[in-house]
Design goal:
144 residues; alpha+beta; two-stranded antiparallel sheet; disordered C terminus; single chain
Length: 144
């Protein structure tokens, strides 16, 4: 389980970054994204990177994914999201600060997952029963 912080210029860029992580990075969100104060997020990232940021963010969210920190970093490196994504591991002091903040933060209401909730399309030709048709192309973003 990894804690991820996403910083961006506006809500749409943050939403696109989260969607890219789900679709192209094959990361599975465990919790809904929670809103984090942008200046607080900037200071956390500066403490992790030990350097000043070139640009300040206007919107920031944080959430947990099912994958561990190492796999999350590898998957995020494969995509080119429109926002700054930081995987905050437990070895940083910022992890505890952000973890405590997430308990009281409000949910990022604009986010809705687009992952399929079932096994695939439903075959309605069988009377009285629903049978899911396995279709790897339909659910190509779900890894088993």
């Amino acid at each position: 389980m990894a804690l991820i912080l996403v910083r961006g210029e506006n809500n749409s860029k943050v939403l696109n970054a989260i969607a890219d992580m789900e679709r192209h990075g094959n990361l599975n969100l465990i919790t809904k994204p929670k809103v984090v104060d942008a200046s607080f997020a900037d200071s956390l990232v500066e403490s992790i990177l030990n350097s000043k940021l070139r640009t300040k963010s206007n919107v920031a969210v944080a959430f947990f994914v099912k994958e561990d920190a190492t796999l999350s970093i590898v998957q995020i490196k494969k995509i080119h999201p429109p926002a700054h994504i930081v995987v905050v591991s437990e070895e940083y002091d910022a992890y505890n600060k952000l973890y405590d903040l997430l308990n009281t933060a409000k949910a990022f209401e604009e986010y809705h997952s687009n992952k399929a909730k079932n096994e695939g399309m439903i075959d309605y030709t069988i009377k009285g029963k629903q049978r899911h048709i396995k279709n790897d192309k339909l659910n190509s973003y779900i890894r088993k």
